[in-house]
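Per your request, structure below.
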């Protein structure tokens, strides 16, 4: 007899709506008017004296304290251009803080494999998928979206909403197999010694796919290299992350210098020569004339920081002076952060490329 295909519940949706996700900095100013409003609200609940004191004590703790506690703020897109100017501030009605610090704070987030901010920063398209999984059976998912690259898939498990269905009583494992730009396979099993169920009710799982779809706008080369560095951090390939952060920083410096020299009417052949042979310190001197207005001493300090955290360890790696396994997570993350900091400070026109664009989505809406 011919095999009869089984009916499989799979729904997909391209996630389009964006928010700009920021981290409220550790040193954000707690606004006096917010404190007074909260005190007034608590005073209306005199039956909660212990709650009042606990809440007021917590209120004076920093909103963020890396690496274990983070508070977030979200902006609508497109962002107000005024917020990308030097010294721009955000007022949330609770806190006031510089936009610059809030962007840099994103790159202090721990390098969790499923960290949403970092995957959103390093991809250009996302789709949401909900599948009804019967444990022990495999499901092949074919994307409705045409991807050039798929970087990662995160999982989400939510209750069925069916009363007395036994949700939460079964230890199951669900993994993603054979991930390509066309789709992936869902593989599931019960954990050893777990309870089994022979109910026909499936377990519902959500999957968020991060990648680059065909036709997506291209990143500038430096931004593409920075995205690769972030992805390497998420997979804990620390030495690759440091290398790509260095490549991103070099690319940004060379591109910025080329644009400025070209605008000044310098011959293209000479620009290529200058970019190829000039020392990085002197490239910063040249960029400073039109971008920053710093003293030579201040530029030397900037260069020393970049050299210490990015270029020197990159050179040691590239020349075989140290092994890739000797690069630590802190070194990789510091290289990324100082790269982002430099690009923000020296490239006002590049700032919008540094904003993590988060795409909120409710998987429940697909059921």
């Amino acid at each position: 007899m011919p095999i009869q295909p089984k009916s499989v519940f799979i729904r997909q949706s391209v996630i389009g709506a964006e928010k700009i996700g920021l981290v409220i900095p550790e040193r954000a100013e707690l606004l006096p008017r917010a404190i007074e409003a909260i005190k007034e609200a608590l005073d209306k609940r005199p039956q909660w004296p212990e709650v009042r004191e606990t809440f007021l004590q917590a209120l004076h703790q920093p909103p963020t304290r890396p690496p274990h506690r983070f508070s977030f703020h979200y902006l609508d897109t497109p962002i107000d251009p005024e917020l990308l100017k030097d010294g721009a501030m955000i007022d949330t009605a609770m806190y006031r803080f510089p936009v610059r610090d809030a962007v840099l704070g994103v790159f202090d987030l721990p390098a969790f494999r499923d960290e949403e901010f970092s995957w959103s920063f390093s991809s250009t398209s996302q789709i949401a998928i909900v599948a009804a999984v019967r444990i022990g059976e495999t499901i092949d998912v074919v994307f409705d979206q045409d991807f050039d690259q798929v970087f990662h898939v995160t999982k989400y498990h939510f209750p069925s909403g069916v009363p007395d269905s036994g949700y939460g009583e079964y230890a199951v494992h669900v993994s993603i197999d054979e991930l390509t730009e066309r789709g992936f396979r869902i593989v599931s099993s019960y954990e050893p010694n777990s309870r089994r169920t022979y109910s026909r009710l499936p377990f519902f799982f959500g999957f968020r796919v991060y990648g680059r779809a065909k036709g997506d706008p291209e990143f500038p080369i430096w931004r593409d290299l920075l995205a690769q560095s972030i992805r390497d951090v998420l997979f804990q390939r620390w030495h690759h992350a440091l290398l790509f952060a260095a490549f991103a920083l070099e690319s940004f410096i060379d591109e910025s210098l080329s644009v400025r020299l070209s605008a000044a009417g310098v011959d293209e052949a000479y620009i290529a020569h200058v970019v190829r042979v000039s020392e990085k310190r002197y490239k910063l001197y040249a960029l400073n004339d039109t971008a920053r207005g710093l003293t030579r001493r201040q530029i030397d300090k900037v260069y020393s920081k970049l050299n210490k955290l990015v270029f020197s360890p990159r050179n040691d790696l590239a020349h075989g002076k140290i092994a890739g396994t000797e690069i630590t997570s802190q070194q990789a993350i510091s290289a990324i952060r100082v790269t982002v900091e430099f690009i923000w400070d020296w490239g006002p026109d590049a700032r919008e490329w540094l904003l993590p664009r988060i795409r909120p989505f409710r998987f429940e809406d697909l059921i």
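The first strand starts at residue 10 and ends at 14.

Regards,
D.
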